[in-house]
Amino acid sequence: xxxxxxxxxxxxxxxxxxxxxxxxxxxxxxxxxxxxxxxxxxxxxxxxxxxxxxxxxxxxxxxxxxxxxxxxxxxxxxxxxxxxxxxxxxxxxxxxxxxxxxxxxxxxxxxxxxxxxxxxxxxxxxxxxxxxxxxxxxxxxxxxxxxxxxxxxxxxxxxxxxxxxxxxxxxxxxx
Length: 175
Fold this sequence. Notes:
Elements: E1 4-6, E2 14-15, E3 20-21, E4 26-33, E5 38-39, E6 44-54, E7 59-60, E8 65-67, E9 75-77, E10 82-83, E11 88-90, E12 93-94, E13 99-100, E14 105-106, E15 111-112, E16 117-118, E17 123-124, E18 129-130, E19 134-138, E20 141-146, H1 149-152, H2 154-173
Parallel strand pairs: 1-4, 2-4, 3-5, 4-6, 5-7, 6-8, 6-9, 7-10, 8-11, 9-12, 10-13, 11-14, 12-15, 13-16, 14-17, 15-18, 16-19
Antiparallel strand pairs: 19-20
């Protein structure tokens, strides 16, 4: 494990076995990362005004940001989730196996259902709720249609692939 791991007001991040933090990833405060989570270059997980909980085998790709609003929301991401490059999860909940596309923004108390896909560049408004296995797209985002089996399994397949990529990166970090 490398990366920046900092306490905030006496609360230190809790990292389970097999977590990979890229050297420029920052994890601060009340953050809990499950087994084999990977947090990539330039990603920021800042649990200073609420908590961040991330389940097993989830990947937070380069330049993503996870935060929340004080006294309003927390960020909760389940197992086997893929969060694309440059995405912002701001006090939202993402359920198991979902895929959050590159550059998407999820605002306070939005919920993305299990195995749903948020299209790249979408803006998911506060309090929006997407059911499982749907495509969410647009600005503001809307549920567009149900996903095919090939589509709804994509988040889990990418999450599995990123577990292997993280292991390869961790080997390169060893002296």
